[in-house]
Amino acid sequence: MIIRYKNIELESIKHHHIEQIRNWRNLETIQNKMIYREHITSDEQEKWFEDVVSKNKLFFICKIEHKPIGLIYSDNIDWQQKISYNSGIFLIDSTIYGTGYPILISLLFTTCGFNFNLRENIVRVLNNNDNAINFNKSIGYVLKEEHPVYSIYSLKKNDFFNAFSKFPKALKITDTIEFHFEKTETDHFIQTILKEENIDLGADFKIISHY
């Protein structure tokens, strides 16, 4: 699947992406923002990818103007309960911080998830990551559980769209979002959900199937 909005592109990860992701993930600047901070080997990354190619896991390379800048994901989705139990993002291009792109990418991904009929999104955030905590609260997340190192926050669909409606226009989704579905098991599964649950994405979304 590829999700496009203006000059932002979210591309489902493929095998050829995994070494780049591993190198990103092993950067000290990225490790310091993660709960799991051990060095990841090539073999471990191969096993991780085998697990990631699943209906309940969505991992996307983030791109701006076709340039890869990081990863965004939901890696434990219960489609029956309509809950994503663990989502996150990391961006490795420091030049985009302060541009609005990190916020817009997160809002785009969250918008798509809720329009796919998810009703709740759960994240784990390090207790010392003030930027992430403040942003999550600004879009409707509420504290669910506190732990010594990290805390769990929950975002309900209605709370998100209520908070989103108050964002400045520059950070709102004001143009068409394109979904390019590819010939994969996961993409077919999501299209089946849209059809079986009679989900109408409306005029703001354009579905394109590459079969």
Automatic annotation (TrEMBL):
It comes from the Bacteria. Pfam families: Acetyltransf_4. This is Protein N-acetyltransferase, RimJ/RimL family.
